[in-house]
């Protein structure tokens, strides 16, 4: 299981996914966060080649929030000042791997 989370400046008025309507949202180009953010009503989606570029943009006040995978978000928060991850997840996802039948060594 994985989650897409919302990152904002610590003093942001965005408290959850419903608050993203009409906001400027940063995403990493081609990610699931990019796909989901496009469904937010009246939101302007800014696409970045790298996740850290979106994080920098929210720090600089160029965008209101970032939608990004939860694990990288934790690392960005450790390294960047003035930003936080909201408690409520934006979405939840599941990952899976396919393994050739009979390849028990790889499966283990």
Folded structure, characterized:
The chain has 108 residues and is an alpha/beta fold. Helix content is 27%, strand content 27%. It has four helices and six strands, in the order ββαβαβαββα. Strands 1, 2, 3, 4, 5 and 6 form a six-stranded mixed β-sheet that branches. Helix 1 links the parallel strand 2 and strand 3. The longest helix is centred in the last third of the chain and has 10 residues. The model has no long low-confidence stretch (mean pLDDT 94).
β-strand percent reads 25-35%
Shape descriptor reads: elongated
Instruction: Name the helix and strand elements from N-terminus to C-terminus, one letter apiece.
Output: EEHEHEHEEH
Structural class: alpha/beta
> How many strand units?
6
Number of helices: 4
Describe the sheet with the most strands: 6 strands, mixed
Mean pLDDT: 94
The share of residues in helices is 25-40%
Amino-to-carboxy terminus distance: 19 Å
Report the uncertain regions: none
List the helices and strands and how they pair.
Blueprint: E1 2-9, E2 24-28, H1 32-37, E3 44-48, H2 51-59, E4 65-69, H3 70-79, E5 83-85, E6 91-93, H4 104-107
Parallel strand pairs: 2-3, 2-4
Antiparallel strand pairs: 1-4, 1-5, 1-6
Quick structural summary:
This protein has four helices and six strands, in the order ββαβαβαββα.
Record keyword descriptors for this entry:
alpha/beta, 108 residues, 6 strands, elongated, 4 helices, six-stranded mixed sheet
């Amino acid at each position: 299981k994985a989650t897409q989370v919302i990152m904002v400046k610590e003093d942001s008025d965005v408290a959850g996914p419903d608050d993203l309507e009409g906001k400027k949202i940063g995403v990493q180009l081609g990610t699931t966060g990019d796909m989901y953010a496009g469904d937010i009503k009246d939101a302007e989606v800014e696409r970045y080649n790298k996740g850290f570029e979106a994080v920098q943009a929210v720090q600089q006040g160029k965008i209101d929030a970032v939608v990004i995978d939860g694990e990288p978000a934790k690392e960005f928060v450790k390294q960047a000042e003035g930003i936080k991850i909201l408690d409520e997840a934006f979405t939840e996802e599941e990952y899976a791997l396919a393994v050739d039948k009979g390849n028990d060594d790889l499966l283990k």
